[in-house]
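To: structure subgroup
Subject: Chain for Friday's discussion

All,

I'm putting the inputs and outputs inline so they're searchable in the archive.
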Amino acid sequence: MSTYSINGQSYSAWLICNISAFLNSDPKVRIELSAHADSRGSADYNMKLTQRRADSAVAYLVSMGIAKDRLVARGYGATKLANHCAKGVECTEEEHQWNRRVEFFVIGDNE
């Protein structure tokens, strides 16, 4: 799956709205948005795709009023798989889906 935009009606949008609420509750917090891909596709393609996913999540938060300097977008490609579905391993679509994700980590504060 090579989509990287956020649909306003999706679970991703709902989750980002909750992240926005968290960030608004503590204006000093900084986060990293880490995007990941499944193992299908080339390493180069997956790195570019996940960077676009992370950038899209940042842009969505910025559009909600969160300052960009509080957000770090980082694409990891398929370098940090959540399960056993490495390249060449037979997996179901659902198993591959687990690897297509964006994670949020608190990385410090803006002081």
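Points worth raising on Friday:
Residues 43-63 form the longest helix (21 residues).
The chain has a mean pLDDT of 89.

D.
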